[in-house]
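Q: Predict the assembly, please.
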Amino acid sequence: MDKKIEQTQKLTISTDVDELVGWLSSTGDRQTALFERAREVKLNRIGNVVHFRGLIEFSNLCRKNCFYCGIRKDNKQVSRYSLSEEEIVTAARYAFDNGFGSVVLQSGEITSQEFTDFIERVIKKIRQSTSPEIGITLSLGEQSEETYLRWREAGAQRYLLRIETSNPKLYKLLHPDDSLHRFETRLNCLYLLKKLNYQVGTGVMIGLPFQTLEDLANDLIFMYRFDIDMCGMGPYIEHAQTPLYNFNSELMSLQQRFDLSLKMIALLRLLMPDINIAATTALQAIDPIGREKAIRVGANIIMPNITPAKYREHYLLYENKPCIDENADDCLSCLEARIAMIDHRIGKNERGDSLHYQNRNKKNQVYGSYLSGQNQ
Ligand code: SAH
Ligand code: SF4
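A: Predicted assembly structure:
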């Protein structure tokens, strides 16, 4: 047998911090073995299919001031915008017409009764205008249980809320120390989303100032223990109009952040073989074929930006964001060719729900019927 295959077959990963740190610092043959094993596991469990989520960044209004983010409230250089109900539904319809099985609605954090009502109406309208109904993922930050429930009942199935870092001390360094930016609140929101039976996605930024490899290893363990269904994580990329920019001298190079991100994806795939893992746009900001590289080492989701082009330059979470001056068609056709080049196919018209979520629900049902059997 080929020596390389023998090596990769022996590769198993556990939730041991030191072991994970070892993998995160791996280079050369050891790193290659990690990538190959993650690729094999993904192909076995998920297949060579990539599902698209049309990303609609529908508003850059935000009440928060995260130190790393370009659209933070206090950045007065940002010109603020919000799409109308009709513009969002039109974008979702575009996604549907082009075979995307799902859309993601993302914005800054806005909390008000009007906003809750607005999103509820948008979800219902998207469902009415697509048949079979397109999948709807929300990424709208921290909200009340009641709001999450209303959106779930309106028909959203998934929610993305990155924990950003699982280390509460590091979280504190990255956010203002006030009641709007509490680690505990973010964590509690993730529990609420799980309780409301969303497919729950989280993730972290990789290569932040003050972040250690131990922190990243603990992030992987956090996602494993929380039993997430989806993950979106990618490199931290600095933005000059943010407070964290002052700590640039603490940063590793962009290439190192990129490599570390690929290792994080590969390790998570080995720890959680059936979850959905996004190849995030931030990877493409560093390497033009960054997302394709992520697909090769375990990711299975791409989120093409289908925000109307005139708004894109105003949703700059970080610098060098790609595809901001292209229209949605350009992005789609270039992506189709890129996916074919890495021997993958696009799961057109398929929702691409998290297999992990389906499997965990099946387990719960079996366990539930076992319990109800005992009660009889
Ligand atoms: N307001 C929502 C959703 C939009 S922000 C929320 O915060 O959850 C989406 C993600 O962008 C954040 O979770 C964060 O991880 C990421 N992000 C923000 N600034 C970034 C930066 N400078 N580099 C990389 N990712 C960044
Ligand atoms: Fe607002 Fe999200 Fe940016 Fe924080 S990361 S400032 S919540 S858009």
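The chain has one domain: 10-371. The CA atoms of residues 238 and 318 lie 6 Å apart.
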